Amino acid sequence: MSKKILFIGLGVMGYHMAGHLSKQFHTLVYNRTASKAEHWLEAYQGQSLSEFSEIPDDIDCVMTCIGDDNDLRDMYLGDRGILANLPYGTLVIDHTTASAGVARELNECASNLGVAFVDAPVSGGEQGAINGQLTVMCGGEIQDYERAETYIQAYAKSCKRLGEVGSGQLTKMCNQIAIAGLVQGLSESVYFAQKAGLDPQAVIDVISKGAAQSWQMDNRHKTMISDEYEHGFAVDWMRKDLGICLEEGRRVQAKLPVTALVDQFYADVQDLGGHRWDTSSLLKRLQK
């Protein structure tokens, strides 16, 4: 418990990630909505900060898991931001799913202040965060990544460095691109089974034992068949992520036709009122 760390952003993922860390490290927390930090302290041992000027001089690592590029800039930059209040040599690990560009921007600012930076978006959803079974994709200098691993292992089943800063975010984009196509394919498969007069559960029982098997199929088919979507990774969040993928695709001249199409399908789900439905709600769009 000798290492002192600060976790910023106690949302769906961060709440549980910080909880795992508190079992191994002296953990401080910060959240823009102070009541969430108070709620966290009822469940875990630690202390909260009300502003970044309260960051102690002996802090070793700061982790963030917040909204998007603009939130990151608001939190990190400026005289009252995170970076301006960190002692020389602090390690920063950003778990936010954001653009590779903002990761590089924050890294440059951090480096100028003698602060190490690792971009480390995660995959595994809320259940993965609860169980400490997240997959973490990292970008940064080798020595900084090795230092970051010490903390990340508290809530991850897999952690890997993919290259320099920004590589973690680029890998998360690959992850979301792959998921988008998988969920659309699964939705069409279940929909086709229903329209063809088959028992969709029986169909999944068979095809999940073969080459069609996927995490999405194993973990989402039952709720899809039951028309239940008030859970999981929200459509709004997926559209944010796919927007990042498509923007980066344009920048590097990568063609992403299926990703662009599925992004529009998710816009249709939003029009149905499914902003906070799980991403598997693509089936709902087909059934309307």
Characterization of the model:
This protein is of the alpha/beta class and 288 residues long. It has two domains: 4-164, Rossmann fold (3-Layer(aba) Sandwich); 170-287, N-(1-d-carboxylethyl)-l-norvaline Dehydrogenase, domain 2 (Orthogonal Bundle), CATH 1.10.1040. The protein has twelve helices and nine strands. The strands form two sheets. Strands 3-2-1-4-5-6 form a six-stranded parallel β-sheet, with helices on both faces. Strand 8 (134-139), helix 6 (142-152) and strand 9 form a beta-alpha-beta unit.
Total number of distinct structural domains: 2
Strand content: 5-15%
Can you count the beta strands?
Answer: 9
Please identify the structural class as seen in this structure. alpha/beta
Say what the CATH topology of the largest domain is.
Answer: Rossmann fold
Helix content: 40-55%
Intertermini distance:
54 Å
Global mean pLDDT: 97
Radius of gyration: 20 Å
Order of strands, widest sheet: 3-2-1-4-5-6
Identify the CATH homologous superfamily of the largest domain: NAD(P)-binding Rossmann-like Domain
Largest sheet: 6 strands, parallel
Q: What is the helix tally? A: 12
Low-confidence stretches: none
- Summarize the helix and strand pattern as letters: EHEHEEHEHEEHEHEHHHHHH
Shape-level CATH architecture of the largest domain? 3-Layer(aba) Sandwich
The CATH class of the largest domain is Alpha Beta
Q: What spatial form do the alpha-carbon principal axes imply?
A: globular
